[in-house]
Design brief:
mainly alpha; 340 residues; single chain
Amino acid sequence: MRSLGAMFDPRRNALNFVRLTLAVTVIGWHSFPLTGHDIEYAPLRQLVGEIGVDGFFAISGFLIVASWVRDPNWARYLRARALRILPAFWVCLLVTAFVIAPLAAGVLGGENVTYVLYNAGLRIFQEDIAGTPLGVPYEGVWNGSLWTLWWEFLCYLGVMGLGLVGILRWRWTTTILFGVALAVGVATTAGVVDNWYAAQGSRFGLMFLAGAMVWQWKDRIPVNAWTLTVAGAVLIASLLTPNYRLLAALPVAYLVMVAGASIKTPRLALRNDVSYGVYIYAFPAQQVVAYSGVDEVALMAVAATLLTFPLAIASWFLVEKPAMRLKAKRPEPASPVAAF
């Protein structure tokens, strides 16, 4: 029986394609509220509205834990994480404040500056610029995607903390923490705990830890028609519950990683990862499309995708890829890490 660990090749996989697909699904979901529509059927709303971001967090959990275990040096780790996420994020803030907002809404003043400064630390404190965008179905928010990056970086810091105290190598650490996040998720879903930070923390923590667990147990996780069918069935059934992640966090993490590991088509093994650029530029691009009067979901999705991809490609080649070259060089790979 082949395991996920045996299938996954860190140098030859389709995770960039999987992430790009997830980023495009986020465009599709945002096309509903940004045209004044919604998905009334709750199971479909969960599938379309949440699985894109959740899949991103699951992949991050898998790759980031693997990165720390491979090279447990906090300075190199932080440098790598910061260079991957911050330069493109800062440029996106600048482009939104001084190009997109002035051209689309005609605003240019002090609030354009504060939009950049107040949000530069990843935590989003200012979503509008002088009240804009106005006259569109979703007013007062130029980029409704960026707020998740703060939670992503908190997960990075959590991995570093666990690594520094020496317990990340023990595979039961992520399993126990997953159980804690699951318990908090149950409590917030049931209304026993009414706290936004607890709800969001359990959401993102659950998905990140699911990916981390899949990495920790990858050599014991089988990949065959039976396990794939069960994972898919659990995912579909979970959509009928108020919080599908409580049942499907692990199946989602399993399915996205199997997809990345098993897709062998050379054209889909994308060498350039534009998914992050698609994610951070799609929302302001959609607001530009909304300013043009588009109020149909499908037309919004297509037009915004066509507008977003050039920005994402420019972000990758002009910002992200050059920034990643500044990473500190890693030492030669150490001997395999014992996990028990």
